[in-house]
Amino acid sequence: MAASAEVQRIVIENCAIATVDAGDTEHASGHVVVADHRIESLGAGRAPEGLENVVRRIDATGHLVTPGLVNTHHHFYQWITRGLATDHNLFNWLVALYPTWARIDEPMVSAAAQGSLAMMARGGVTTAMDHHYVFPQGSGDLSGAVIRAAREMGVRFTLARGSMDRSEKDGGLPPDFAVETLEGALAATEATVDEHHDPSFGAMTQVAVAPCSPFSVSTELMRQGAELARRKGVRLHTHGSETVEEEQFCKELFGMGPTEYFESTGWLGEDVWMAHCVHMNDSDIAAFARTKTGVAHCPSSNARLAAGIARVPDMLAAGVPVGLGVDGTASNESGELHTELRNALLINRLGAHREAALNARQALRLGTYGGAQVLGRAAEIGSLEPGKLADLVLWKLDTLAHASIADPVTALVFGAAAPVTLSLVGGEPVVENGRLLHVDEDDIARATRAEAQRLARIAAGA
Ligand SMILES: [Zn+2]
């Protein structure tokens, strides 16, 4: 076919490059050649002479090129409930918001997904995820709505199909009207996997099985969810060890801590990643390392909800895969991942390891390769290497905000949020000069405001 013979190349030159490969290879001034969906070559100096079918040649002077950022934990629907219950801890914040969340419908979720995705993509996210676990009866096709929004934005996407079936009457935290039945949740999750999960190299949409948390999910749903995921060959995701209150809940209800509870229900393993993992003792961290269970570190959300500081330096030293997460924007109103590089570094330096906690390169690795690892996609994305997918970002570092910082990775992580001149997902442009190419930001802003107001009206009348 003509298409395969006529490979199309994009050449990017004169930029600093942080590959985030196994050796942390960097080039002060180098080139990246993209051929169709993949990285063909990269290195120091100018691109090789004589390349054919070059459709675009970019002089990226003043820029740093990195792998695209990978978000590993989010709840898109929360985009329309930002700025509420602003001075609460996790459990009080959840109890305050559950009644509103239980009134969401498909147009609301669609607008919220667009808002969440737009904010992240504009800031260099090329792989997004949504942990969606609120499915009110008759609310429409919520999973389809978020998947359509991600496709429209042009980013790679994992939908973690969540669920809750332990309500107040069973000793759980959510109100009875906000949960599904065990059978209903499992059947809907399996149908979502069958309809949307693409296991192939370069997939744009994948699905994970994702019961919400120990305090909102029955032990049976945890167990059967793990069995379902393994039968289908998809990944597992949940919240774990987020707060001291959760730890107490597990000890009272199950007679063990969260990590032992996860182990007893089949929830430790290299196909599992868990959000937060703030309250982990040495043996919890050893269990995660031994089983290669991944962690989505969400520093801003953990600070917003006064949850604590996750022991990321200890996890990394033990060999636990760690990525970064925005978390839902009801507990991280900025909704940005590139600023989480900085927040991860700063917040971890307030912990036990002080200035040795994390450096700029480690923070960049958390947001790229670490994220690819916990999503099970490290062979495809997360670092810039020949043969991998061309998911990459050109950060503009030659303006007032960064120009006087000599080291580009230091500028990106320690400095102000850097503008994105170009982001590619599988070689396809998603952002150019700070603007999203496939959607209109102002339209999305109007739609999300209207849907937030509609939800607030419905919730007030409930
Ligand atoms: Zn969360």
TrEMBL record:
Residues 64-409 form the Amidohydrolase-related domain. InterPro entries: Amidohydro-rel, Metal-dep_hydrolase_composite, Metal_Hydrolase, MTA/SAH_deaminase. The keyword Amino-acid biosynthesis does not apply. Its EC number is 3.5.4.43. GO terms for molecular function: deaminase activity; hydrolase activity, acting on carbon-nitrogen (but not peptide) bonds, in cyclic amidines; hydroxydechloroatrazine ethylaminohydrolase activity; metal ion binding. It comes from the Bacteria. Keywords: Hydrolase, Metal-binding, Zinc. The keyword Metal-binding applies. This is 8-oxoguanine deaminase. It comes from Streptomyces olivochromogenes.
